[in-house]
Amino acid sequence: MYPSLHSRGSVSEEVKAAKAIHPKGDYMNIFSVFVAATLLFVYPAFATTQLDVKALSELPENDIDIGRVALLLAQEVFPEIDVDAYSAKIDGIVTEVKKLTRGSKDPDYRVRALNTYLYQMYGMRYDETDPYVTDPRNRYINGLLDIRKGSCANMPLLYLAVAQRLGYPVYAVSVPQHYFLRYVDMGLKMQNIEATGGGGFSPDEEYIATLQISPEALQHGTYLRTHTHREYLGILIEQNGIYWGMNGNNEKAIEYLEIATRLNPRSADAMRSLGVAYKNQSKKVKEPLSQEYETKADECFAKARQWGATNLPLKDYVATQQKAQEEFRRNQ
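Structure (tokenized):
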């Protein structure tokens, strides 16, 4: 879990209003880790649902319902889920949050209301037993709706899906191996929302220092840029592309990852994932196709480096990031 530097108070009459959800300085856990799926993610060895991912990728920005597209993509991994039924679960959360907001247009109050319901009343929490996110349920939105535990892959996703249906200007933000959210409103000083840290606030500077974000990455917009919903859709499709590659369907992996990089063209991580898929495909075909895929892979890796992709160490990742976070906060 990534505990936020500043927590936000509750708005619920059912909890102590003066008590923050995650008090400042309470290191309840550490970073939620979205480790490279090609190394650690153990995927289910099945997939039967047919999805027209090309049609999905052509949806205009204003026609993308984050919750529904996330469920459609999750259905590829969990064919048994009922998309309409799970979408209704999201609507149920929206209804309950509305009771707390009471029509308020104040962005700070809205975020507090979301936090109060999701973390204190609904019980959404980080799965501390799975810090490297090897359980597929901790990657997809249906898993969080089922067990109310998750990771930085699906906790920001559900938060965003609810906020979007409430009509709030909340968008995804990516940093190395992690995602958080941003409420875009000039009237709100603390716009960043750390979904794995109780919805609290951490400044951009903390992410830069702790997650080793380079000036090149900031200049290119690789990390810390507010994503459009279409760009975030690219991130969700990228995850499924990795899923197909891990299940031996490299052609489909390439199809998905090429779409992901078109939707999210400044993502060094998506470009690197596509490079891995090209590299794997080069080993499955004969010349001259093999060399063509090798060349494409090298081009992808070169772009990812140029765009400032961060390579965080997998060994002792959690302890390393906690130490970096604590050092940053001591210097504030």
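Confidence is low (pLDDT under 50) at residues 14-43. Residues 125 and 311 are 27 Å apart (CA to CA).
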